[in-house]
Design goal:
The protein is an alpha+beta fold. The protein has one domain: Aspartate Aminotransferase, domain 1, CATH 3.90.1150. The chain is 31% helix and 28% strand.
């Protein structure tokens, strides 16, 4: 599945000013790494966000949010936000900031 390049540009813009960001093609989409840790990614027209295992259940209850699942087994700590949940730049930035915050809480790789 190809990823939405327009969304990739929006995510890159939301990451302006964050040190250590690297874009990496993976999972058939685009991942955004911060200090070597995945913060967010794009799968088609959806945003994947790393929120961590502790926040996972709470975040799943938010609108337009669901588990990240490639194999029939959800990856705890990662959620997928549907296009409706990231339609505005403010909403997109809020989700990207969550992913960056979690990535920054981890040791650099």
């Amino acid at each position: 599945m190809a990823y939405d390049e327009g969304l990739a540009c929006r995510v890159a813009e939301a990451l302006t000013g964050v040190d250590g960001v690297v874009e990496k093609k993976m999972f058939g989409g685009m991942a955004f790494m911060v200090r070597g840790n995945m913060a967010a990614g794009i799968l088609g027209d959806r945003l994947m966000v790393r929120v961590g295992k502790e926040a996972y259940e709470e975040v799943l209850a938010e609108p337009h949010c669901g588990p990240m699942d490639f194999t029939g087994r959800p990856m705890r700590g990662f959620v997928v936000v549907e296009a409706e949940g990231i339609a505005s730049d403010v909403d997109l930035s809020d989700w990207v900031d969550r992913g960056v915050g979690f990535a920054l809480s981890l040791p650099s790789k």
